[in-house]
RNA sequence: GGCGCCGUAGCUCAGCUGGUUAGAGCGCUGCACUCAUAAUGCAGAGGUCGGUGGUUCGAGCCCACCCGGCGCUACCA
């Protein structure tokens, strides 16, 4: 065993789900589930974890979606914040503070960073040709423009790229350009924006990224490619929904801060909000202005550039300056940026518009959260795209989760409950007894190390192997037969088996918090192994109150260590952990998706 | 077009810096068991690692080219 390290300060930073609509299971596979596994493991290990995030509510897509729904952007954001927050709570994603980007606090922090970067000369004014919708006067991002490709003549070319010939385009060059929102012809005008001077950070970024040997290779290589050709990037937009630009000449009714600029700041602002909410306003500095802290970001691969280039550039540029930094130390750069690939749905790329998606809330209305968490971890898009199929989901649920771990819990508890009603008292332990106890105990280090490396598939597989060890032991010892012939030996065997189950429940707790809690209770233990989440209404004067998703994780009784189950503890009547899904499930769900 | 990834048993995937008979889970076959949501355990069949050509004493792991699948290409989020 390694020497027990001192508790570490760990920031877990899952990407902020965008509030244009509900999220599908591919989204949560990228940011939420891996981040939560990581956070729960470190809390059980005794580290001081701060996991913050929220809904990302600014930007054009929210405005477009709001228009289509006939509501204001704020109303749409309110609605989707509530939907997404419920999804995450129901999935058991253990945020310390899941907030939103429309809070007053977030705007203040964003403006402080923006102002500081501007004062330091990292935000420079430039003019560029921009597309506007004549109907609304709003900016029209390249992707919202389509027309005929000037190269191949394809009619459905988008403003940034032609899907037919693959060439990159400039919307100005499109023949017969039109807005995909309302079909109107965009106007192109000169417009002035503040650009983040990314080339100024190129050297430092390249050096920093090169040194990151713990990053997944695709993240590191991709990022190195990016920093070699950096250009200044506009950080303001011609819209009226977003954080107000704290610079003269950028009036709030026409210019706002670019949504990605404020979204990445969310990690910092939500930490500050959390500190405020718990009544220790400076506590966030222990994570952000402490070089010994470690910061882990989780997201889908499409977010890499913002987390390995733009956000680090902003952090480097801000340094320890500005009102919030207050000269008390440089803001911490990411320790690791754990990017997932994509989840496809039955072989097709998830698409909101074509409704090729399995929405989290819809999924959870028919199935339990732990089997989904299991699937997204065991078959997740860790190193390459992975396909979600209902057939595979049913199989993983029935033939792996239920058959191996669920059945072990059930057979062990049923035997013990019926014959003893409590945790039986062991007598002499045989070699087989100590062997299985040691085998399961050994999994703690293995599973923990794999989680720490971000190898979640391997980690949950290792936990399953430990469960197999216990199944082998139970099969060999056959306590159901011993009960009739040698009650004392039966008591010992069942004690050993229960103790293994008690350990395994902890090994599975980061992945399967709900069922681990159920096992914890059935074994007669008290308290929260890895407790529940809750909503809390917060808000400062001068702003509408909002609800944050949080939890009282300090009260957890679980610890990342083998069980020392107390004999004599009263058992609860066992009930199955997982529902067996009938084969018809597959057909029903495919029909629901419109595939047959 | 540029950059990058992938192609290993029926399926889903591991194989870290090249080194003895290529691994796991599921599926399949047989046996055992019957406490358990017919769930478990044991044994076994089944790949020469997309193709070709190289480097090397030795390559799934390095190099070149080819075939097939995919992603990214940042002023969409």
- 3D shape: elongated
As a percent range, the share of strand residues is: 5-15%
By CATH, the architecture of the largest domain is named 3-Layer(aba) Sandwich
What count of helical segments does DSSP give? 20
Biggest sheet: strands, sense, closure?
5 strands, parallel
N- to C-terminal separation?
Answer: 53 Å
Q: What is the helix content?
A: 40-55%
Task: Describe the 3D structure.
The chain is of the alpha/beta class and 596 residues long. It has two domains: 9-140 and 186-340, 3-Layer(aba) Sandwich (Rossmann fold); 372-381 and 390-528 and 566-584, Isoleucyl-tRNA Synthetase, Domain 1, CATH 1.10.730.10. 45% of the residues lie in helices and 15% in strands. It contains 20 helices and 18 strands. The chain has helices at 25-30, 32-45, 60-69, 73-90, 104-119, 202-210, 217-227, 259-277, 285-288, 304-318, 322-325, 360-366, 369-378, 390-419, 431-452, 456-477, 479-485, 487-508, 513-522, 584-593; strands at residues 9-14, 48-55, 97-100, 123-132, 145-148, 157-158, 175-179, 187-196, 233-234, 236-237, 256-257, 294-300, 336-340, 343-345, 348-349, 386-388, 533-538, 546-551. The protein has a five-stranded parallel β-sheet with strand order 3-2-1-12-13, with helices on both faces. A hairpin with a 7-residue loop joins strand 17 (533-538) and strand 18. Helix 3 (60-69) packs across helix 4, helix 14 (390-419) runs parallel beside helix 16 (456-477) and helix 15 (431-452) runs parallel beside helix 18 (487-508). The two termini are 53 Å apart. The mean pLDDT is 90. The structure holds one RNA strand of 77 nucleotides.
């Amino acid at each position: 065993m390694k020497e027990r390290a001192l508790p570490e300060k760990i920031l877990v930073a899952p990407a902020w789900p965008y509030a244009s609509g509900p999220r599908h299971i591919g989204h949560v596979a990228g940011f939420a589930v891996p981040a939560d596994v990581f956070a729960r493991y470190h809390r059980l290990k005794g580290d001081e974890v701060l996991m913050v995030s929220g809904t990302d509510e600014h930007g054009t897509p929210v405005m477009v979606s709001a228009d289509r729904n006939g509501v204001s952007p704020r109303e749409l954001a309110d609605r989707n914040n509530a939907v997404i927050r419920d999804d995450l709570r129901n999935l058991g994603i253990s945020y310390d503070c899941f907030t939103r980007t429309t809070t007053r606090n977030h705007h203040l922090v964003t403006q402080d960073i923006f102002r500081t970067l501007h004062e330091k000369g990292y935000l420079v004014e430039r003019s560029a040709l921009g597309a506007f919708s004549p109907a609304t006067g709003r900016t029209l991002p390249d992707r919202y423009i389509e027309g005929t490709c000037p190269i191949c003549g394809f009619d459905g070319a988008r403003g940034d790229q032609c899907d037919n010939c693959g060439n990159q385009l400039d919307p100005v060059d499109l023949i017969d350009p039109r807005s995909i929102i309302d079909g109107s012809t965009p106007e192109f005008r000169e417009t002035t924006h503040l650009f983040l001077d990314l080339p100024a950070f190129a050297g430092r970024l390249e050096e920093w990224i090169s040194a990151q040997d713990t990053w997944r290779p695709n993240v590191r290589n991709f990022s190195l490619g990016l920093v070699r050709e950096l250009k200044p990037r506009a950080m303001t937009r011609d819209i009226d929904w977003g954080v107000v630009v704290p610079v003269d000449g950028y009036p709030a009714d026409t210019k706002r801060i670019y949504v990605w600029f404020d979204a990445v700041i969310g990690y910092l602002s939500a930490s500050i909000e959390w500190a405020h909410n718990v009544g220790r306003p400076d506590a966030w500095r222990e994570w952000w202005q402490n070089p010994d802290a470690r910061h882990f970001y989780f997201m889908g691969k499409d977010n890499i550039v913002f987390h390995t280039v733009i956000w680090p550039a902003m952090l480097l540029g801000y340094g320890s300056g500005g009102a919030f930094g207050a000269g008390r130390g440089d803001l911490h750069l990411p320790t690791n940026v754990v990017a997932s690939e994509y989840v496809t749905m039955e072989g097709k790329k998830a698409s909101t518009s074509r409704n090729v998606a399995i929405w989290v809330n819809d999924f959870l209305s028919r199935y339990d959260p732990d089997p989904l968490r299991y699937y997204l971890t065991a078959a997740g898009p860790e190193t390459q795209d992975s396909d979600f199929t209902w057939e595979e989901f049913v199989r993983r649920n029935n033939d792996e989760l239920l058959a191996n771990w669920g059945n072990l819990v059930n057979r062990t508890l049923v035997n013990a409950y019926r014959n003893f009603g409590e945790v039986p008292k062991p007598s002499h332990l045989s070699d087989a007894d100590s062997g299985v106890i040691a085998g399961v105990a050994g999994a703690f280090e293995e599973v923990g190390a794999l989680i720490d490396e971000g190898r979640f598939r391997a980690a949950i597989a290792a936990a399953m192997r430990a469960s197999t060890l216990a199944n082998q032991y139970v099969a060999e010892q056959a306590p159901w037969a011993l009960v009739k012939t040698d009650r004392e030996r039966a008591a010992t065997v069942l004690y050993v088996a229960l103790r293994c189950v008690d350990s395994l429940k902890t090994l599975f707790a980061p992945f399967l918090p709900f069922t681990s809690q159920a096992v914890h209770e059935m074994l007669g233990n008290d308290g929260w192994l890895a407790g529940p989440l809750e909503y809390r209404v917060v808000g400062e004067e001068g702003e509408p109150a909002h609800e944050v998703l949080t939890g009282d994780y300090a009260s957890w009784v679980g610890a990342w260590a083998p069980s020392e189950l107390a004999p004599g503890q009263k058992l609860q009547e066992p009930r199955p952990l997982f529902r067996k899904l009938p084969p018809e499930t597959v057909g029903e769900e495919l029909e629901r998706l419109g595939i047959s």
